[in-house]
Specification:
Largest interface: A-B, 64 and 61 residues
Number of domains of chain A: 3
CATH class of the largest domain in chain B: Alpha Beta
Helix content of chain A: 25-40%
CATH architecture of the largest domain in chain B: Roll
Shape of chain B: globular
Shape of chain A: globular
Helix content of chain B: 25-40%
Strand content of chain B: 15-25%
Number of helices of chain B: 6
CATH class of the largest domain in chain A: Alpha Beta
Number of strands of chain B: 5
Strand order of the largest sheet of chain A: 11-12-9-19-16-17-18
Largest sheet of chain A: 7 strands, mixed
Structural class of chain B: alpha+beta
CATH architecture of the largest domain in chain A: 2-Layer Sandwich
Number of helices of chain A: 17
Bound molecules: FE2/S2 (inorganic) cluster
Oligomer: heterodimer
Distance between the termini of chain B: 51 Å
CATH topology of the largest domain in chain B: Ubiquitin-like (UB roll)
């Protein structure tokens, strides 16, 4: 059996090829704090997280610890290092982290990667650069200030003297690591802020990029699952006979699906902690799928009869009459008093549906459990969290869990929930072989977890001049914290659910304001879904701001500008949006425009939708967008992400919802859970604000304002207010 | 099980599989070209698109038994030897892919379009790519890339 140190040595040797000297820099400590630590070849056993490796041949390897699901971390994080290290991105090799604790947090989620790693990554790059320059200066008997680094080499000013990084590493590795190296100013950036090509792109146009789906390991078997038709069901009995008769089928066995993040099992939440499943394990995937269709299972699905999405929304509408648990940190003045003195009080209720993530790559995982160790090859958003989960589940040490992160064929939150990896582990353990589990599209859609269906109950008060006196936003629905982490949210204000409408995200200067949350159990598994609660909350929030503007007979843009007066970044975004969309120009008859703005994940995004009549419905003519995400790291990628969010958000607005009847999800594949296709998308024009602020998120902030901007535009065109999503855009107006 | 002779990316392959096995799984798991993806299994998403005698087809819904030994099948790996097909070049230039999972299918569908229609209109593009879902929403960039590939092809000819 290999020890931990031997494992890292093996990995190291693979990385450094024939080199004998090298320089490795990372962060000490579990928390990945700012202290940079040096390791030389005599310290192989030391636990470091090598974010930078340079060998004596000058080969630079940078580690990316944030899985790439299409949002661009594969480039953006190494780029932060490369900028300060003075290497071009096309000179380096990028490797993925493996989930081990030494890399610190490795979650791609919450649009947080660039935002949180902005300083640490650059510091690491700058520290190494300073060490290399120091070494060269010493060798030339020159002052450090006479030397500079560029594209992987150190130069002496005013001379032709040059030393490649490879020639310097052995000596540089003996120097102490500068703890506070000088970081470049924005003006000095040569790569950040430029649309540098993403190194993963060529592999994604010639079929060589490796996704979870593409993993192949020796001796691997394929598994397909029969899940409970009512999600939480248990197997009473099953017959494997017909399935076993399929050539290539090796095992038909009972397995289980876990719904909660560990520890397992649980008390009050026990009923929804696990479901059963039957796995068909075969020599080929097609045999497994054929076998799956022939398994006969007798399910017990107690309580599922009464679960339906219609019934949930009835209960939620009823619960919307309650007070709701208040968000103390979003409270301003007393809304009750404000409404009492208002000239006009209006109320409206908005509804957003349950949705599936439906990433193009169905969830899958290849797992090999052996004795006290496990190796995983899978498309996962947070390999470090998965290490913990698997160690917990299998009762083994974290050091014995190895995760090989592949590219993710889309995720949108779904692949930061590891039920499918645990299933594959459970199966692998039983059959004693590496197992590649692939969910069918139908399972992907019918087993959840889902974006929570929510209701926003809105109330606003205006004085006789049409000024807003009070604003209330009550959230009603399920809780991701309950569904994933077993927190009881009954009577509490779910701390996550208030995102996008808290005072920082929605700085409207209402004299009185109240946000609250009322928990209603959906009896279905819930999960974060691209932009999470901001995706549901902002529909009611930004539509209702429009309703108040219309009630006050004021222009919705003017109302926003005046309520946001003290928030210059919001004002600048709105002004830019007005400009690129020609908002102020009178539109031809038959054309309407609507806007919405939202801050989420530390970035501000606003859209203007221009719409026109189209028979019985409405057609989106063009979408204009502005995003302020702080310092733009890769403008082309930011534009792509905003476009991506418009398409994703529009699908959520005008296509299908997940419907459940008697505990069974009614949708099954892309025919009854349609998503936007080429030919259904409007023209999109995106503007990225210049900024030197700390970068904010990019992968999600473009989504929340989509639905309200479109519905505000439709109101502007037709006078019809849409309060329930999704709706049929061809039959509206 | 039965033996089938297939011509994939100009190479001949003999595979021994059930007659109802979809071409998708033959290509991926028997022959080993992983660029062709599984997305829906029902002909709805286009992730599994390959070219059959130049025409884009859904390999997930094409049983291996329906193919002839003379049929020419091209997967993304066979589109060019070194990523030089004009569509691939235009895709890189425009930085089209995000997650990339749908892109093999998109690139093949676009290459088939340009082969039959060297100067497609927006409507032609909409039609030709209607069967290929991109959940990351790269649609606008794909449209731009197809137009630029078309332009490139026409200047090359001139
Ligand atoms: S996998 Fe064949 S069309 Fe979706
Ligand atoms: S690039 Fe992700 S699905 Fe198209």
């Amino acid at each position: 059996m290999k020890t931990k140190n031997e494992t890292s040595r093996r990995d190291f040797i693979k990385l450094s090829a024939q080199a004998t000297a090298f320089l490795a820099i990372g962060f000490s400590g579990k928390a990945s704090n700012e202290l940079v630590k040096l390791v030389n070849k005599t310290a192989l056993g030391v636990e470091i997280n090598p974010y930078i490796l340079i060998n004596e041949l000058g080969k630079v390897t940078l580690f990316n610890a944030r899985p790439d699901m299409g949002q661009g971390t594969f480039q953006a994080l190494p780029l932060l290092i490369a900028e300060e290290l003075e290497v071009r991105l096309d000179q380096v090799d990028i490797q993925m982290s493996d989930g081990s604790g030494k890399f610190g947090s490795q979650l791609s989620g919450g649009s947080s990667s660039v935002k949180t790693r902005w300083i640490p990554m650059r510091t690491a790059g700058a520290a190494v650069k300073e060490m290399l320059i120091q070494t060269a200066a010493k060798r030339w008997n020159a002052a450090v200030t006479e030397c500079y680094a560029k594209e992987g080499a150190v130069y002496k000013k005013g001379s032709s003297m040059k030393l490649g990084y490879g020639e310097l590493v052995e000596e540089a590795a003996k120097l102490p690591v500068p703890t506070q190296p000088r970081l470049k100013s924005h003006a000095e950036f040569t790569q950040i802020g430029k649309s540098i090509p993403r190194p993963d792109v060529p592999s994604k146009v010639d079929g060589t990029a490796v996704f979870g789906m593409d993993v192949q390991v020796p001796g691997m078997l394929y598994a397909s699952l029969v899940h409970s038709p009512t999600i939480y069901g248990k197997v009473k009995s099953f017959s494997a006979e017909k399935s076993m008769a399929v050539k290539g089928v090796r095992f038909v066995i009972k397995t289980e699906r876990n719904f909660y993040h560990g520890p397992f099992p649980t008390d009050a939440f026990k009923a929804k902690a696990k479901s059963d499943a039957v796995a068909v394990v075969a020599e080929s995937y097609w045999a497994a799928v054929k076998g799956k269709k022939l398994v006969e299972v007798n399910w017990s699905s107690e309580g599922a009869e009464s679960t339906s999405t219609d019934e949930f929304f009835l209960r939620a509408n009823e619960a919307a009459k309650k007070e709701g648990a208040e968000y103390k940190d979003a409270k301003v003045g007393e809304v009750g008093k404000a409404f009492a003195i208002s000239d006009k009080v209006i109320q409206a209720q908005y509804q957003t549906p349950f949705l599936s993530h439906a990433a193009m790559e169905p969830v899958n995982a290849t797992v090999f459990v052996q004795d006290d160790q496990v190796e995983v090859w899978a498309p996962v958003q947070g390999p470090d969290a998965l290490v913990e989960e698997l160690a917990n589940y299998l009762g083994i040490k974290k050091e014995r869990v190895k995760i090989n992160v592949t590219f993710l064929g889309g995720a949108f939150g779904r692949k930061a929930y590891y039920d499918f990896v645990l299933e594959a582990a459970h199966i692998s353990k039983q059959v004693n072989a590496p197992v590649k589990l692939i969910w069918t599209r139908e399972e992907d859609m019918q087993q959840g977890p889902y974006r929570p269906g929510m209701i926003s109950a809105m109330k606003g008060g205006l004085d006789e001049h049409g000024n807003v006196l009070g604003f209330e936003h009550k959230l009603v629905g399920g809780s991701i914290m309950t569904s994933v982490f077993k927190f009881d949210m009954t009577g509490k204000s779910d701390p996550w659910a208030g995102e996008g409408i808290n005072l920082e995200d929605s700085p409207y200067a209402f004299p009185a304001r109240r946000n609250s949350f009322e928990y209603v159990a959906p009896n279905l598994p819930m999960l974060w879904w691209r932009s999470v609660y901001a995706s549901t909350n902002l529909f009611g929030h930004e539509s209702f701001v429009d309703e108040l503007a219309h009630a006050a007979k004021k222009d919705p843009l003017d109302v926003r500008l005046s309520l946001l007066e003290k928030s210059p970044r919001f004002v600048a975004v709105l002004e830019k949006l007005a400009q690129i969309s020609n908002y102020r120009t009178k539109r031809a008859k038959g054309l309407g425009i609507g806007i919405a703005i939202a801050r989420s994940f530390s970035s501000i995004a606003a859209h203007a939708f221009e719409v026109e009549k189209n028979g019985k419905g409405v057609r989106i003519k063009e979408v204009f967008s502005v995003i302020d995400c702080g310092t733009p790291v890769n403008p082309a990628n930011i534009i792509a992400q905003v476009q991506s969010n418009i398409v994703f958000g529009l699908t959520a607005t005008i296509k299908n919802e997940i419907r459940v009847v008697k505990g069974q999800v009614q949708n099954s594949n892309f025919h009854d859970y349609a998503v936007l296709r080429q030919g259904e998308i409007p023209k999109m024009t995106v503007h990225v604000m210049e900024s030197t602020e700390v970068p904010g998120g990019v992968g999600e902030p473009g989504l929340p304002p989509v639905a309200p901007a479109l519905c505000n535009a439709i109101y502007n065109l037709t006078g019809k207010r849409i309060r329930t999503l999704p709706f049929d855009i061809e039959q509206i107006g | 099980m039965a033996v089938y002779n297939l011509q994939v990316n100009t190479k001949k392959h003999r595979v021994d599989v059930d007659s109802d096995t979809p071409l998708l799984w033959v290509i991926r798991d028997e022959i080993g070209y992983k660029g062709t993806k599984f997305g829906c299994g029902m002909g709805l998403c286009g992730a599994c698109t390959v070219l059959l005698n130049g025409q884009p087809i859904r390999s997930c819904s094409t049983p291996v038994s329906t193919l002839k030994a003379t049929d020419k099948i091209v997967t993304i790996e066979g589109l060019s030897a070194d990523v030089t097909h004009p569509v691939q070049q235009a895709w890189i230039e425009a930085q089209v892919p995000q997650c990339g999972y749908c892109q093999s299918g998109q690139v093949l569908a676009a290459s088939a379009l340009l082969a039959s229609n060297p100067n497609p209109s927006d409507a032609d593009i909409d039609m030709a790519l209607a069967g290929n879902i991109c959940r990351c929403g790269t649609y606008q960039k794909m449209r731009e890339a197809i137009h630029s590939a078309a332009k490139h092809l026409s200047t090359k000819k001139a």
